[in-house]
Amino acid sequence: MHPSLAPLIDRNAFIGGCDKVSSIIGAERIGKKAEGTMPHSLLLLLGEERGWKMYDQVVEKGTMRVALVDTYGDEKEASIRAAKTIKGLDAVRLDTPSSRRGNFPDIVREVRWELDRRGFRNVGIIVSGGIREEDIEALKEAGATGFGVGTAISSASAIDFAMDIVQIEGEDKTKKGKFSGNKNVFRCPECHSFLVSTEKEENCPRDGKRMENVMVKMIDRGKALYREDLEGTRNYVLEQLGWYELSS
Fold it and tell me: What band does 158 get if pLDDT is binned at 50, 70 and 90?
């Protein structure tokens, strides 16, 4: 990821429902603390158990303890050792390469089973490594409690849009292929469908409900009018996500 994109990507990921971001510059953009887990390089240099211990000693109190458990061998065996090594371990992280993964939900089920059998029911399972939206439901059902998603967010399909002049000094005017004139965007409070119109008020063509005008003026004659309340934006997005079911 190019450093200049990190603040925007992390900001959008956060308001879209992600709980945490890991880049320092992105966390600064949203006024949050950057949080992540240990790198594989730590365990390659020090070995797993020594690396886990040093990580636990160095990381400040109150920060989640998440141990990587896929560096060398079997994930469930390493998860048990990590849980025994770090007192109060919050979670293990499976970043298993796709070439060695097989059925990832099955691996998660094995890890969950073995941790539970040994009294580590409070230790969560975070999965990462090329996780996509369509993978999450099956992994969640298998016992995963957290998801580290990078590529699927930062390299998501773009939403194509354009900003066009549609009126000049009160006269409707625009380029070919576009619709001239000032417009409002309405949304139905019942079915949540949208309608673009030049009218000041509209009723939903589906159910007849009075629609809400969702247009917000951002800039007027070069002056910025809008200041974002990040938590408010996040809550608004999460509310809207609750209206729809994730595609499988």
Answer: confident
Q: Which residues, including other chains, have CB under 8 Å from residue 35's CB and lie 6 or more apart?
A: 20, 21, 22, 27, 63, 64
- What is the chain's alpha carbon radius of gyration, rounded to the nearest angstrom? 24
Phi, psi of 174 (to 5 degrees): -155, 175
Domain 36-154: top CATH class: alpha beta
Q: Residue 47: which region, alpha, beta or left (left: phi > 0; alpha: psi -120 to 50)?
A: left
**Strand-pair partners of 38:** none
Q: Which residue in 37, 104, 88, 96 sits closest to 67, CA to CA?
A: 37
Domain assignments of the chain as residue spans, ordered by start: 36-154, 167-241
**pLDDT tens-digit readout, 86-107:** 999 999 999 988 888 889 999 9
What confidence tens digit (pLDDT) does each residue in 130-146 have? 898 889 999 999 999 99
For residues 198 and 173, what is the distance between their CA atoms, to the nearest angstrom? 14
